[in-house]
């Protein structure tokens, strides 16, 4: 195994980034929290890849949720046609993703790991420069009697085991070790009976390859939620929730010492507002359906006109996700199958809407005056009032050129001469991660008598970091 080293394929890899493996509803929830903390709390700008195994682990709707956060979603199942995998499950995926990620320098981060600070500084540490691998200690280690030493053909080593909730690797300097770890995980049926899953395979691979690594002297600390890890100066960096993972439906254990807990819980609430909490793989569709979906996403704005009820502005986003106008109950995703538009939420799907004659992007339940219709609304918020309102909100939120009071007064005046609700809906979508902008939109909505019936938002109780 040690002798079967393959040359490092430098042409395949470039740059540095974070790799997170997350498949299934529970781990998608954890990954959502981790990515939002990285992007919106600690301000991490490193590229992020989110790996999964096939559409049953993470579908197009879930992938679309992560893309606005600058996340590249990678389906390992599709890559196996190029880079075959003998065995590929949740633990095996970590070694596979590490080896085949497009990055040269990889921070492999478990989905249930919440950083306390931006981990990008670890790439600049002298320990990483010296060794090309930073690892962190586990709270347990192999015993001298473990069969794994004989299986791997190496003598017992009295040293801390690795805790693989986080692993920083320069593949250009550790390629042999990465390949051995991949081999061991692809043969997990031989190694996992004697290891604690994937984590020990990394440690053993580095030993077998004779590769160097650096580990902080500060021991891992067990807590009620999992394991805390520190950097070489003793500062807390990672909070691995290995014991109590995040729960989509609540019941998350409160831990007073857990950093960014309020933000994490807020992110789960945001997730609940736009996702059903289960992986709903969309049915197979034809090329014609896919073409129609592209056309719908290109228009983006539609009005749902049910009989005997107020019409509803819907933002039909790429990736089969509903933006503005979404509701957990009835309006979280959309797709086209056999030329029929389907909209649905956690309580199931609405009656299908057939394409109307003469208009390829208008749909209705029946032909006639009393059916539900879904019609394009590209003009929504784009008239003179809408354009002016958007400019006012941008001046306040983006440039800080005007005060909040001036913005509220100006927008309230615009409401007297034009249709402001559509413009506010669009602004809410554009500024969904800005507490200041959302607060302004809510104030304006209340002032012109719309309130939360139109602008249904919760202004975060903490400072957003763009």
Radius of gyration from the alpha-carbon trace, in angstroms: 25 Å
- The portion of residues assigned to helices is 25-40%
Number of individual domains: 3
Q: What is the general shape?
A: globular
The CATH fourth-level homologous superfamily of the largest domain: Spore Coat Polysaccharide Biosynthesis Protein SpsA, Chain A
Which band does the percent of strand residues land in?
A: 15-25%
- CATH class category label of the largest domain: Alpha Beta
Global mean pLDDT: 88
The number of distinct β-strands equals 19
Structural class: alpha+beta
The oligomeric status of these chains comes to: single chain
CATH architecture of the largest domain: Alpha-Beta Complex
Layout of SSEs?
Blueprint: E1 16-21, H1 25-41, E2 48-52, H2 60-66, E3 71-75, H3 76-79, H4 90-100, E4 105-110, E5 113-115, H5 126-131, E6 133-134, H6 148-152, E7 166-170, H7 171-186, H8 188-191, H9 199-209, E8 221-222, E9 227-230, E10 236-240, H10 261-274, H11 287-299, E11 301-305, E12 312-317, E13 321-322, E14 333-337, E15 340-345, E16 348-349, E17 353-355, E18 363-364, E19 373-376, H12 384-397, H13 404-415, H14 421-430, H15 435-447, H16 451-454
Helix pairs in contact: 1-10, 4-7, 7-9, 12-13, 12-14, 13-15, 14-15
């Amino acid at each position: 195994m040690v002798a079967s080293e393959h040359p490092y394929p430098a042409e395949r890899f470039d740059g540095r980034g974070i790799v997170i493996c997350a498949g299934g509803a529970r781990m998608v929830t954890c990954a959502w929290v981790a990515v939002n903390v990285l992007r919106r709390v600690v301000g991490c700008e490193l590229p992020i890849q989110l790996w999964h195994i096939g559409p049953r682990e993470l579908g197009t709707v879930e992938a679309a949720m992560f893309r606005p956060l600058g996340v590249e979603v990678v389906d390992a199942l599709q890559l196996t046609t190029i880079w075959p995998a003998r065995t590929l499950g949740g633990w095996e995926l970590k070694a596979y993703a590490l080896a085949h990620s497009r990055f040269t320098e990889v921070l492999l981060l478990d989905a249930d790991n919440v950083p306390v600070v931006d981990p990008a500084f670890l790439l600049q540490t002298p320990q990483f420069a010296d060794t090309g691998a930073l690892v962190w200690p586990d709270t347990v280690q192999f015993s001298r009697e473990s069969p794994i030493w004989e299986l791997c053909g190496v003598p017992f080593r009295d040293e801390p085991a690795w805790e693989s909730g986080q692993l920083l690797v320069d593949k250009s300097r550790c390629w042999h070790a990465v390949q051995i770890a991949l081999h061991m995980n692809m043969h997990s049926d031989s190694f996992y009976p004697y290891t604690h899953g994937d984590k020990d395979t990394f440690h053993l691979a580095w030993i077998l390859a004779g590769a160097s690594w650096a580990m902080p002297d500060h021991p891992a600390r067990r807590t009620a939620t999992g394991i805390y890890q520190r950097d070489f100066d003793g500062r807390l960096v990672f909070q691995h929730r290995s014991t109590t993972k995040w729960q989509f439906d609540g019941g998350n254990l409160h831990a007073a010492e857990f950093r960014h807990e309020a933000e994490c819980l807020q992110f789960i609430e945001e997730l609940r507002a736009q996702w059903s909490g289960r992986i709903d793989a969309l049915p197979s569709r034809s090329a014609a359906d896919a073409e129609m979906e592209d056309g719908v996403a290109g228009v983006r704005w539609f009005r749902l006109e049910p009989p005997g009820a107020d019409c509803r502005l819907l933002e039909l986003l790429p990736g089969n996700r509903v933006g503005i106008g979404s509701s957990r109950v009835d309006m979280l995703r959309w797709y086209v199958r056999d030329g029929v538009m389907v909209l649905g939420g956690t309580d199931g799907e609405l009656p299908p809407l057939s394409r109307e004659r003469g208009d390829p992007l208008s749909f209705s339940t029946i032909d006639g005056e009393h059916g539900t219709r879904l019609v394009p609304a590209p003009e929504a918020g784009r008239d003179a009032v809408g354009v002016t309102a958007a400019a006012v909100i941008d001046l306040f939120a983006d440039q800080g050129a005007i005060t909040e009071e001036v913005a509220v007064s100006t927008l309230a005046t615009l409401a007297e001469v034009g249709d402001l609700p559509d413009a506010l809906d669009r602004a809410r979508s554009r500024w969904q991660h800005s507490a200041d902008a959302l607060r302004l939109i809510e104030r304006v909505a209340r002032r012109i008598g719309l309130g939360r019936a139109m602008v249904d938002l919760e202004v975060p109780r903490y400072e957003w970091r763009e």
